[in-house]
Amino acid sequence: MLTCEICGEELVLEEDMKTHLLLSHMENDMGCPLCSWSGVAYDELCFHINTTHKEKQDHDGGAEGRGGHSLVRPSSSPTPTTTIVDSHCKQAIGLSRSEGSEEGVANGNRFDTIGGGVSLRTSNSTLESKERMTVSPQAFIRGEFGGGRAVAIVEPASSVSTGFLRSAQDSSRPTSRHCNAEDSVGVGSAEHTKVKQKRFSSPLKEKQFSCPMCALVCTDAFILQEHVELHLLEESPAEEAVLGATSSTEAASTSNSSGGKSYECPLCSVVCGDCYSLQEHVELHLDYGTATSAVSPGSDLRLARRLQEEEKQRRKEQEAKREAEEFKKLQRQFGVDGRGGYRKQMERTMEKAVSQGVMVPADFHNKRAEMMEALASGVDDGRTRTQGGLGALYVYYQREVRDCVHVWLSADTDHFCSSEGDKGWGCGYRNFQMLLSSLQKMEPYTTCLSEGSVPSIPRVQVLIEGAWREGLDPQGATHFNQRLQGTRAWIGATEIYALCTSLRVSARVLDFHQPTGPGDTHPRLFDWVKQYFSQTATRGARLPPRVVQTTQPPLYLQHQGHSRSIVGVEQKKNGSLCLLLLDPGCSPGDVRKLLSQDGSTVSTAVRRMRKFPGNLKHRQYQVVAVDGVLSPEEKQTRVLNSRTLQAERIP
User: Fold this and answer.
1) Chain mean position to CA 465
2) What residues act catalytically?
3) Which ranges are annotated Polar residues under compositional bias (predicted)?
4) Under a CB-based contact definition with an 8 Å cutoff, are residues 182 and 174 in contact?
């Protein structure tokens, strides 16, 4: 363990002691002990003593070798005092390091080398305070412990420093920073000035060492080494800051950020909105070399603006990409993504069945030929059609159900379910086929509708496009780009209204735009449906029958993502209402259970048709109701009014 003799700090390594002495004590003020010269470097002070005070040192050398006073710079502070000793004035401390065993012992003094330093022990009565002298920091760094120069530190053991050293022979001689008359004997003022001028004009013959990192020139290799190490110490914090910033941004990128948080650059004052922008900003620092150098305010401003522009551009690109992806999803969802319509989907489904071995190639070609023939005729092939369902319901309620006070059923309606060609998107077309199958059997509508023939889905698409060309619902036409053929586009209540109007069928659209009951239910919708079916059944009757099959056509019910047909309503003994729905998603086998003679089988099919208020919890429902036939004038009026098509909002 090495101990600094100036401040008492303990260090382990010699290199650490050198660094400590250089940084902590090299800059201390050093002055000449023989005159008032001070405030200079160590080499200059040694040169000054060896040139200016050489004769004085030779004159006083004999006396001091016999115990004379030592040359010590006085100090008014309790810090250790400094004595400058060189090879020409060894007598200032009584003896040199090499003469310690001879002359020093003769004078009662002894030098001991301890851990690379030199201590002075004396048996003189005036030095009973056990003063100790060690080699100075400068000498320790340079390694000049031999006959070269050294600086001795005189440190009294007492708490108060005397500021000078007394010898046994001359204990009363004071010491001063200025040369007194006795010290300046033989050296005149003119000669003193001449020597000083010679000292300034004479160049040093010592070897010079230039710093490779700045313009500093050092006279010693050890000082140059310490100086270069300081350069490295100054640069390492900036490099650590850059590395720390990069690692912090990489760590932040793996966590969920969060909206509203800002990140400040550790190398400048730029604040970024997210960790990715901060990482790019720090990388720009590294690219332009601004991590370890000062950046002017102008360059900071330009860099900040550039980063802002890049961030805006990046956000615009991300927003455009996100919108494009969402638009593609909507196109795929609503069947306008160019994947083909009913015919292509049917062909792909049959080809898949052939590849899986479910269908033989011969059946594939036969079914494809039948499909092409039906599409050419424009009439539905009837494979998904189930007739007689409403009649079977009427019989079932007359015979089985006892918990209903009243049951109202629509006019006879056929069920159409989805097929392989329209699965996933054809519910609106199938519900229109159900509505049309009911209207074709009712007297008022036979004049404007062809009896018995229900158009196929591609034909319904052609009819809707024709309604658009007549001027009906121009906003809807623009939405579908005036085209439905060959697509899988979904249709809704407005397209059904436009198609009915084009066929001179009077229709109205009612919009139940918000829930009107607890738990997001729609009791107003149930009440309106009851009033729609019961208004003709109770006309002219005192006591309406329990089960009534009315002459009202079914209702088209639309909600988000699906549509169904309302063909009846039940009223329970407790007053609650229940709707009866035909769903295009039900298979023909499930609907044909209504035609069964088994009461339990029919009950199972009816349970699937019942929908209580708790089963209809979509936020919005739209209903298309048919209420007569339009004259040509009324049709034209509705065509004009459909330019700003508005539904009847309830409530």
Assistant:
1) 48
2) 427, 562, 583
3) 167-178
4) no
